[in-house]
Amino acid sequence: MRDAYRRTRTSAVSFALALTLAMAPAARAQSRVTGADLRGTVRDQSAGALVGATVTVTSAETNTARSTHTDASGRYFIGALPPARPSARR
């Protein structure tokens, strides 16, 4: 009887572990459903990259802002923005 209990307990623990591992990618993927990343390139009138330009994204609802600077190629990235109607300016 003890062996049957031990096998049942081992099976239950194995099942719980397998279920947890199977659900982990789905939980991680779902965690970014409600946000967005913003990336782009800032260029001047002659299509040259603007290095060190400040890019700011402001939430229209909360008036909170996030800023970054462009890199040596004029590229910028602002990650994990919360859901909102953003406005961007350089």
Bulk shape: elongated
Query: Rg to the nearest angstrom?
Result: 24 Å
Count of DSSP E strands?
5
Please give the order of strands in the largest beta sheet.
3-2-5
Average predicted local confidence, pLDDT: 77
Give the helix tally.
1
Based on secondary structure, the structural category is alpha+beta
Largest sheet: 3 strands, antiparallel
| Helix proportion range | 25-40%
Our measurement of the CA-to-CA distance between the termini, rounded to an integer number of angstroms, reads 73 Å
The fraction of residues assigned to DSSP E strands is: 25-35%
List the helices and strands and how they pair.
Layout: H1 2-31, E1 36-41, E2 54-59, E3 65-69, E4 75-81, E5 86-89
Antiparallel strand pairs: 1-4, 2-3, 2-5
Describe this structure in words.
A hairpin with a 5-residue loop joins strand 2 and strand 3 (65-69). The mean pLDDT is 77. This protein folds into two domains: 1-31; 35-90. It contains one helix and five strands, in the order H-E-E-E-E-E. The strands form two sheets. Strands 3-2-5 form a three-stranded antiparallel sheet, with no helix packed on it. A two-stranded antiparallel sheet has the order 1-4. With 90 residues, the chain is of the alpha+beta class. It is 33% helix and 31% strand. It has one helix at residues 2-31; strands at residues 36-41, 54-59, 65-69, 75-81, 86-89.
